[in-house]
Amino acid sequence: MENPYVPYPVRIDDIEVATEDKSLKTFTFVFQNPADEEKFAYKAGQFAELSIPGVGEIPIGIASSPVEKGFVKFTVFRTGMVTSHLHNMKKGDIMGIRGPLGNWYPWEKLENKNVVIIGGGFAFTTLRSSIVYMLDPANRSRFKNIDVIYGARSPGMLLYREKLFDWEKRDDINMHITVDSTDDPDWKYHTGFVPQIVEKNAPVADEDTYAIVCGPPIMIKFTQPALTQLGYQDHQVIMSLENKMKCGIGMCGRCNIGKELVCKDGPVFTLEQINQTPKEY
Amino acid sequence: MNFITIDKKDWAGGIDKSRKTYRVFGPVQDENGCQLKPLAPDVYPLMDAGVTVMSPKSVLFPQTEKMLTATLDESSEDHHIMKPVEKDNTPRVVLGIRPYDARAIQMVKLNFDNPDYQDPYWCEAYDATTFVGLGINRPDSCDFSTSAGTGPFSEEGLDVLMADLDDRYLAKILTEKGETWAEACGFDTSADAAESQALFDILRKEAEKNITASVDTDRLSEKSILDLYEAPFWDDVAFSCINCGTCTFVCPTCWCFDIQDETKHKTATRFRNWDTCMSPLFTHHASGHNPRGSKVQRVRQRFMHKLKYFVDKYDQGIMCVGCGRCVASCPVNIDIREVCKTMNNYEKE
């Protein structure tokens, strides 16, 4: 019998400090057994359990994209016991990854649609995965307009800065990068909170436009009315939720919102679905 | 269906024969009351004991269980690679399990053995286990199993159902597993099927008559989740609760667990332990945020899970078999039957 609790052994291939305050690091993992990489076939929006023997496991969104081969990437905020331990690990260390877990952004439904990606702070990991996926030459023609609104507290707190500025230069994606504030006189992008930038820059919704929203609760709270104003209906707003998890496979019982389990029935839900469940996230 | 009679004089000898192939579990009295335990070679099950304090769920789902282990010794080639812990999945038999507890195991099975994932620890233990139930001739005062979709002589989840007829047991063999167990014990005195079934029916009706407690569940499925969730009665329900979690630990259908790592010398072990939705840590995010940070939210979660979310998700009634353990054990007398009635009768204004 397949044991879903056994992680795939991986080696830390690279560690990058992701933000200026060093609270986030991006870890690149390579599978110890090449066959495991195929078993780990994932879609943008899914997550995995990073598993450190003797320390524990943490559910983290997959930041690399299915079109990037040979490695998987996770950007991790140092906050609890496992993430603090992980931040102190070094290149070459062996640990485990269990997954992929959960559902993904509804890529089939998004085909031939305009996609608006809205992210704030470090909730940009599975959005990075999604953008890289959509911009891949094999996939770009499957989507209509792509808009990205992404903000952080300051320029140094934006994740994946080089990628962002590369995307900025392309003509097949509309980037709206913003920071809450900056004293950098050369800052050429937006200043202001994400909801304000959404209000001003997000495309008005027709029935072929979907928004994917990930961010801190405060950002989500103020982005929702902005989207409603622009004509987005609840089924056109797609969100990814987080809750405390252990098993990641719908058995341990803690991550439920009503009868849905965030780990297995989610983490991706439409606002329409979320409105029908208790808000226990 | 195949019936056999077992003279009580032959009972202990039969059990002894079966010990060659089975690990035998059964009710015994210890300093903490009546418990279901693996039986030492010279111990026999206390078949006429009352309801066990803890449910038999631990036979398949131990309170603490090793799952994986890894060596942290970097000189070893497979260091930091977690591997499943070897389990003893030789056949085991649970003697004297109550019919409603067997039904509870079928509910827990919905969680651990589903189309998407199978929990190998639970599933392999389940496959290795034979459940020999004993019908309840004299139900306890807290028993409300008949209104919870099971009953004192319910057969669901059992491999053998026995009836206590003073000097003998009448046993109904329900599955192949049950047949194999009876053979291993050398129990082979067959009984007339029609007569035996008639006797079972009489006993069942007599026992059911003695169950006076009940729950009302008929209108739960038609309510909306959000209406019940936002109902005004939760503060009253939770008022006296001290979040001790006893109800969840004694419950035969509560399946939630925690996973924790421990390191001793150079060996890391990953365990799972029973967890409880009554604990604030159950849902406490590392960030400090807690979606069920208050007591009333946690009490509501327990009852909503058992009496509404489960009902809607599986369409198999409530996640409760009416054993009455939580009613009897609750230190502040919270009664699931009352809560269920309140939910069932609730009309949003």
Structure description:
The complex is a heterodimer of chains A (281) and B (349). Chain A is built from 7 helices and 15 strands. Chain A has 281 residues and is of the alpha/beta class. Chain A folds into 2 domains: 8-100, Beta Barrel (Elongation Factor Tu (Ef-tu), domain 3), CATH 2.40.30; 114-240, Rossmann fold (3-Layer(aba) Sandwich), CATH 3.40.50.80. In chain A, strands 10-9-8-7-11-12-15 form a 7-stranded mixed sheet, sandwiched between helices. Chain A has a 6-stranded antiparallel sheet with strand order 4-3-6-1-2-5. A two-stranded antiparallel ribbon of chain A has the order 13-14. Chain A is globular. Chain B has 2 domains: 2-59 and 66-82 and 89-209, no CATH class; 225-345, no CATH class. In chain B, β11 (257-264) and β12 form a beta hairpin. Chain B is globular and about 65 Å long. By secondary structure, chain B is α+β, with helices and mostly antiparallel strands. The longest helix of chain B has 20 residues, at 295-314. In chain B, the strands form 2 sheets. Chain B has an 8-stranded mixed sheet, sandwiched between helices. Chain B has a 4-stranded antiparallel sheet with strand order 5-4-12-11, with no helix packed on it. Classes of the chains: A alpha/beta (281), B alpha+beta (349). Chains A and B meet through β4, β6 and β13 of A and β4, β5, α3, α6 and β11 of B.
